[in-house]
Amino acid sequence: MVGPSDQNKHRTVPPPRNFPVPVPPPIPPRAPAAPQPKSPPPGQPDGPAQPPWMLSPPPVPRPSEPIPSGKNRVTRSTPNTLAGPNVPGAVAGASKPRPSPLQPTVRQPATPRSSEITATGDTDEAAGDKTFRIRSLLDRLLANSPPWMVSLVVHMVVLLILGLITLPQDRPRPLTLQLGNAELAGHQLEMFEAFSLDDVSQKLEKDFVRADVPVEDPLAAPPEMELTTIAPIGLTGDPTVPVIGTLLEGRRVGSKEALLAAYGGTATTEKAVRLALEWLKRQQQSDGSWRLDGPYPDGGFDESRVAATAMALLAFQGAGHTHQTGEYAQVVRRGSTALLKMQDQDGNFFHRGPRHHRLYSQAMATIAICELYGMTKDEKLLRAAESAVEYCVNIQAPEGGWRYDPKVDSDTSVTGWFAMALQSARMAGLTVPSFTLDNLSKYLDSAQVDDGSRYAYQPGAGPRISMTAEALLCRQYLGWQRDDPRLLRGVNELLKNPITWDRPNTYYWYYATQVLHHMGGPQWFEWNKVMREELPARQVASGPQTGSWNPTGDAFDRQGGRLYVTCLCTYMLEVYYRHLPIYRH
C-alpha cells in the first residue's frame, strides 16, 4: 500500500518469481510531459472523493514512467500492460494490442480509472489494505474468467432485476369481516316505486344457465319454455292470482347475490345463515334425522323427529341446497332419506308423539318434500310429494282448516302451515283441488276480524298479532292484491309491532317477515332495517352452540326449543331469496 512518505518515489514492484514477463513493445518518442500541478495541502484531496466501493488497489508504475510527486496521491495514467492476472493492479481486459509498425501509435489522453485511490492518512491504512485485498481478489477473478462466463453473469443479473419487477394483477381480494352497522353494509331499497326488477330479472335469467348440468347436444338451441300461472283451482278466472310456479327460482345459483342487493340483505345476514347451517349440520343424527329435545341444551319439551327433520331440511333448502347440489348436499340427502322413511303408503309422516304435534309435523314434512321436488324435479320424489299432498287434502276439516286431528276442528295456526304446504305443492307444479283452496278461504273468512285486516286463533275469539301475520300471508298467496285496503290495514298493524327482544315472539316474526317482504316498498324497508340487525346480534357467537339462537321467554319458543327457534330465525334471514316476492313476479 502506498503511504504518504516519499521514500517509495523511485521504487518499482518487480513481478513475482517464475512469472513470465512479456517484453514490452518499443515506445515511440513522446512529447515533453506537461508540468505537474502543485500538490494540494496535506489532508486536502485534489479531486472529488470516491465512495468506498469505487476504491482500487494502487497501480504498479512502469520503469519508464516516473511517479509524479505528491504526498497523498498516486495516479496511474496509462494501463499496466505488464501486470498479469496474479499481479496486484492488473485489470481484466486492460492490455492493449501491440501497435502495427505501419501505423503510428497515437497516445490517448489519460482517463480516470477506478484504480485511483486517495490516501486519507495513517488512520485509513487498515481500511485501505482490506479494500485493496478485496479489489485484488475481484480483479483476479475477472481476469481469469472467460468472456462467456462474464456474459452469463451479466445476463443473470439482468434477469434477476427483471424478475423483481412486478406488474399489477387482478388478485382475489381476501375475505374480511368488518364490524359495523349492517344497515350501512348492503344496498337497501328506500322506495319500492324507484326500483325495477327488470335488470335483476335479466341477470337471473343469465345466472340460471347452470354450467354443471350436462346436456345431450351442447350446440343445440335451448328448448322453448312457456311460463304458466299455477293459480289456485277455483280462482283460475281471477287475473290477480300471482305466478306461483316461479317463486322458488331465487334459490338458484347466481341469483342470491342479486336478490340480496335488491332487497337489503348484507354480509352480516349471510354470515348468520352460514353459521346456523353449520350448527344444524352438527346436530344431525346418525340416521340422518334431527331431534327437538337435544342433544343440545334448551331442547323442546316434547319430541317429534318428523317436525325437527323437516324444519332442518327447510333451512338448508331455503339457502339453495338440495340432495343433488350445494355444499350441504350430503346433509340434505341423508335428511331427506330419513324423512321419506317416515312416510307410509297413505302419505302420512307422523306415527308417534304428542297429539298436538301430529298435523304440524305433517304440514312441515309436506313443505320439505314438495320444495325439494320443485327445486330438483327428481322423479324419485314425485310420488312421495303427491302422496303427501293427497293426505293433506283428505284430512281437511269441514270448517275448511286443520288442527290437531284429521278432519276434526280448525285453528288459524295449524291451518297456516297447511296453506303453505299446498302453496309449496303448487310451486312444484303439483295439482291442488279447487274445493280445498275454496274451503281454506272460507275458514279465513270465519276467523277474520275488522273485515279481514286482523285474525283470531279460532273463529269468535279476539285477534292476535301472530295469527294476523299468518293469515295475511295466506291471503297474499290466495290472490289478494297488494293495494287491497284490508291487506294494507293489516300490514300497518304488523309495523306497529316490530322485532324487539323486550316482547319476543319468534313465531310472529317469521310470518310478518314474509308478508312484508312480499309487500316490498317502504313497509319492507322499515321492517328489514330492524330485522337484519336484531337477529344476527342475538345469534350465539362462541362455544359449542355457535350459530344457534337461545329460546326466548316466549311460551312457544320454550316448547319448541333451540332447534325450533334457530330454524325460524334462519328462515327469516333467508327471506331475500327463499321465495320471490309475489307482487313482482
Mean pLDDT: 75
Written as H for each helix and E for each strand, in order along the chain, the element string is EEHHHHHHHHHHHEEHHHHHH
Give the number of helices. Answer: 17
What portion of residues is helical?
40-55%
* Proportion of strand residues: under 5%
Shape from CA axes? elongated
Please outline the major beta sheet: 2 strands, antiparallel
What is the CATH domain class of the largest domain? Answer: Mainly Alpha
User: Within the CATH hierarchy, at the fold level, what is the topology of the largest domain?
Assistant: Glycosyltransferase
Roughly how many Å is the radius of gyration? 45 Å
Describe the SSE topology:
Blueprint: E1 73-74, E2 117-118, H1 125-144, H2 147-164, H3 198-207, H4 256-263, H5 267-283, H6 305-318, H7 329-341, H8 358-376, H9 379-394, H10 412-427, H11 434-447, E3 448-449, E4 454-455, H12 465-477, H13 485-495, H14 506-519, H15 521-538, H16 555-573, H17 575-578
Antiparallel strand pairs: 1-2, 3-4
Helix pairs in contact: 5-16, 6-7, 6-8, 6-16, 8-9, 8-10, 9-10, 10-12, 12-13, 12-14, 14-15, 14-16
